[in-house]
Write a structure and sequence with these properties.
68 residues; three-stranded antiparallel sheet; 1 helix; globular
Length: 68
């Protein structure tokens, strides 16, 4: 069975020019690094996949609100 999981993450360029991506989980966090934003997100994807393998899918809360 496949399940889609959406994981919010932050992406920023470090002082040395590399890129870092970070996602938070109830069991901790995951980090990805790379020379480009795409490489950092791909590295983060691998880290998140390993966390899900070990700890399972994190609980997700979705809120839908009207925005003025």
């Amino acid at each position: 069975m496949k399940q889609m999981v959406q994981i919010p993450y932050e992406l920023k360029q470090e002082e040395d020019g590399t890129w870092g991506a970070h996602a938070s989980f109830p069991s901790g966090g995951a980090h990805g690094v790379g020379d480009t934003p795409e490489e950092a997100v791909a590295d983060l994807y691998e880290a998140v996949s390993l966390i899900i393998e070990e700890f399972g899918v994190p609980p997700v809360l979705t809120i839908v609100q009207d925005v003025a």
